[in-house]
Design brief:
- This protein has 380 residues and is mainly β.
- It is built from 3 helices and 29 strands.
- The protein has one domain: TolB, C-terminal domain (Neuraminidase, 6 Propeller).
- Helix content is 7%, strand content 37%.
- The chain has a 5-stranded antiparallel beta sheet, with no helix packed on it. The protein has a 4-stranded antiparallel beta sheet with strand order 2-29-28-27, with no helix packed on it.
């Protein structure tokens, strides 16, 4: 049948089908772009079909969120295959994002110009949170040795903190720098697990029943000895003099996790199930208050890590059921502005790129990125 005849036949068939004719004459039949909640779900592979804009997995909760978004852009998966991706931080001088695979015991770099991920430090000693200070030096939390370290510009390593008042820390987790040269960090007990470090010695605070053997598979057992966490999870400040001060005891914030400052460094945010805010008073904090309970549509969007943008909005990760896992964005007043849905639970975020205008998200086995119309507030 000639091409023209086939087209005419199809047209005639449509004309003789009342249901289709009514649909065409009345309501348009529009497609639904695939997302994390569609069936089949969105394809995140590099060879996936072209994106549809606006991205169906960018959810606007408040019109103010649109000002923070780039119209013709979407979420992209950069790489996958990790065990638990965490602790992203941007090196402005090096032009790369460093992040940790905590359970995989490797640090990686996403090289901005090459657009590839390469191993950086292996073993990483179960590093978790990372940042860069105001001199461009990388600061890392090492769960395995339960310490906070700084990589100097010549490649050497300086141990900033591994104890408080002569007793070992638990396992520094997240970290942020202050313009006065100090480093603030949280110290929960994640590193006392088999998957992210090593257990306490038998009978220790987190191995009371002596069920776990810290010597098995631990090549540094003779180096670390029978290191036990001596304190409950707390929040500390490392001073450039080398002194470590307790700034938020466990009785005020139990189980601290993510930590960051506001753009003017007058407010400190700390995650402990919910997100709390404090007024910064010199070398300490006051006026604890709830910033957000992280509830969205009745769903608890469990936060892990967070960073602030230059407008004072807080971008936090969300460890929640599918449809709410990803990242959330909150105004300086704690109002939900919007969220980014990912197909995996998210652990942490940072602002990346030469302009610091890309949200880089570490999410379980993968890392993702989204261009923004706002820049990150702090180094790293």
């Amino acid at each position: 049948m000639p091409q023209l005849t086939r087209r005419a036949a199809v047209a005639g068939a449509i004309a003789l089908t009342p249901g289709i004719a009514v649909a065409q004459a009345g309501k348009a039949m529009l497609g639904t772009p695939p997302s994390v909640i569609t069936n089949p779900p969105r394809d995140w592979s590099p060879n996936a079909p072209p994106d549809v804009y606006p991205d169906p997995d960018i959810i606007v909760a408040d019109p103010a969120f649109r000002r923070l978004l780039v119209n013709l852009s979407g979420i992209h998966r950069i790489a996958t295959g990790y065990k638990w991706a965490e602790g992203p931080a941007w090196s402005g001088e090096g032009q790369y994002v460093v992040f940790s695979d905590v359970q995989g015991d490797v640090q990686y770099r996403y090289l901005w110009d090459a657009k590839i991920v390469v191993p950086f430090r292996s073993p990483s000693f179960n590093s978790n949170g990372n940042t860069f200070d105001f001199q461009g030096r990388q600061v890392s939390c090492q769960h395995y040795f339960r310490r906070l370290v700084r990589w100097e510009l010549d490649g050497s390593l300086t141990v900033l903190a591994d104890s408080f008042q002569g007793k070992p820390l638990n396992s520094p987790n997240d970290v942020c720098p202050h313009p006065d040269g100090s480093i603030w960090f949280t110290d929960p007990a994640s590193g006392a697990s088999l998957s992210e470090g090593h257990p306490d010695a038998p009978g220790g605070m987190r191995n009371r029943d002596s069920l776990l053997d810290p010597k098995l598979g631990v090549s540094g057992a003779g180096i670390i000895g029978s290191m036990d966490g001596a304190y409950p999870a707390q929040t500390y400040r490392w001073d450039p003099s080398g002194r470590v001060d307790l700034v938020i005891p466990n009785s005020v914030i139990p189980g601290p996790n993510g930590i960051c400052f506001s753009p003017d460094y007058k407010t400190l945010y700390v995650i402990s199930t919910q997100i709390y805010a404090f007024d910064v008073q010199g070398q300490t904090v006051t006026n604890k208050r709830l910033y957000t309970d992280c509830m969205v549509d009745g769903v608890y969007c469990h936060p892990d890590g967070m960073r602030a943008d230059r407008a004072g909005n807080i971008w936090a990760s969300s460890n929640a059921p599918l449809g709410y896992s990803g990242s959330t964005c909150w105004s300086p007043a704690g109002k939900l502005l919007g969220r980014i849905r990912l197909p995996e639970t998210a652990a942490n975020v940072c602002f990346a790129g030469p302009k610091r205008d890309h949200l880089f998200m570490t999410a379980a086995q993968s890392v993702y990125m989204l261009p923004l119309a706002i820049q990150g507030a702090a180094p790293g």
